[in-house]
Amino acid sequence: MCLTTLIVLMLVALKVSSNIIYNHNEHEVLDTHQLGEIFTRRQKYWEDGSKITVFIKPINSVEHKFFVFNWLRMTHNAYKTKLERETYSGNSIGLIEVKSDVDMLIRVANTQDSIGYIDNKLLIRGVKNVKIITDPQ
Amino acid sequence: MLRLLLILSSLIIAKEAIALDYSLSGFVGYNHVQSTVHSNLDDNPYDFGLLFSSDLNENISASVHLKYTGGEHVEDILAFGFLSYHTDLFKLPIELQVGKFRYDNGLHGGDLTNPRVRPGIIVPQSIYWDSLRYMRDGYGFRMMTQYKNFELSTSIGKSVSHNREQEIFAWLNVPANYLSFNNELDMEGKFGNVFNSFLKYTDDNNVVKLGYGFVDFNEYIAAEYISFGYQFSFTDWTIEAETLLINPTTKHTNTSFFNFSSDLNKGYSLSLSYTVNDNVKIYSNYNTYERKGELVQFDHNWNRYNDTSIGVMYNITDSILFRTELHRSEGSSVLTDKYPQSDNNYDNYYMGAFGITYFF
């Protein structure tokens, strides 16, 4: 059994809930509305004008649905409609899907001005460049 | 232990990681339209879309949307495709783009290719008139910026002709004689200048969008337009009001821009929708269009159009969408691509439609 599979099993075993992680120079206070704007690509830039790169789990995965419901306070179909309205109009590029929490952490840590989410059971304090938001505002 | 697990896993995944971060999605679908006045409406029954976008580096991204809707205009398969350069000016984000665009006119000008966000299977023709596609597709340059709730977009370029060879030339920038169809090409006057801009305000409940643009269809015919759209959402209800004013002109009539007279083509649309639950939405629309001006002098029905419709959208699963609509219409001014004008009665007719789409 490879380690990736092991981690997936661990995530299923634990009740999945997420923390927001982001890589941006300035400290951000993000409420539910603003996160909704970012994760549907309606807000494409941080306040300092830098471009936001957004990472998500596969869009139809249980983890992503859970994230949308908990953090964005939206139903999954409403979320997809908003997202596709932005991306299919050509006004925004799409979101980048990653397979696992580890992948998410690596991508966010290595991508300036990015944002994603990760299982809240994972201890990631001290990872360079990555800031954490633990509670929906 | 967990930290060790993360590090070991990262080594595995790093090997598998694709060098390029990208997003890929799409859909395939089938639509059928039946009318009491004409039987050959479903000339574009098949829907196919593929959207790819990627950050090439910190400042440059690429986006490509391919579509296929059947019919004869296979050259339209590229809905849009462009390179985008991002920078900021005094903390104001700026996107500079080059490529082929879908000019985003009206509240739903950018939504027309994706069945999930289209305002209908048969969209309000008074605002999203098929023959206005020259205002919606083109290639050139675009600049976009966003400040708080406001978004501003300005584009300038060339409209796209419904001619495969010209489309290839336009997109690939390959000389006609290089592709060996020089003899079939008559490039002169086929491409028109397009200018398009909009200002959009969005908050939790409101969307306000004001647009202005012009297009030179060829060296003789041009048009300018003003569009205004307002959307208000409250709980599960959404109401939308839109208007489109078009000023067609020719070099001979020499009507200058901003010299709007009473001879405008005027389109109005009013929509109401109710989201029953996460999977079901009911929507209705009334839209009307009146053609004026001296460019066209035809009979009563060809200078007007109005349509009242009701429809249902049902998400059968996360990936399968079903829609159905019923329309009652009068006139045919915006249906010229599909309706022959000579042998039918357009005083009062019905259209029914259904569509099913699979998203991946």
Average pLDDT confidence of chain A is: 82
Task: Give the class of chain B from helix and strand content and strand pairing.
Answer: mainly beta
Mean pLDDT metric of chain B: 76
The CATH architecture category of chain B equals Beta Barrel
Which chain pair shows the most residues in contact? Answer: A-B, 48 and 58 residues
Q: Looking across the biggest beta sheet of chain B, what order are the strands in? A: 1-2-3-4-5-6-7-8-9-10-11-12-13-14-15-16
Q: Portion of residues in helices of chain A?
A: 25-40%
What is the CATH H-level superfamily of chain A?
Periplasmic binding protein-like II
Under CATH, the topology of chain A can be stated as D-Maltodextrin-Binding Protein, domain 2
The portion of residues forming beta strands of chain A comes to 15-25%
Largest sheet of chain A: 5 strands, mixed
Compute the separation of the termini of chain A in Å.
39 Å
DSSP helical segment count of chain A = 5
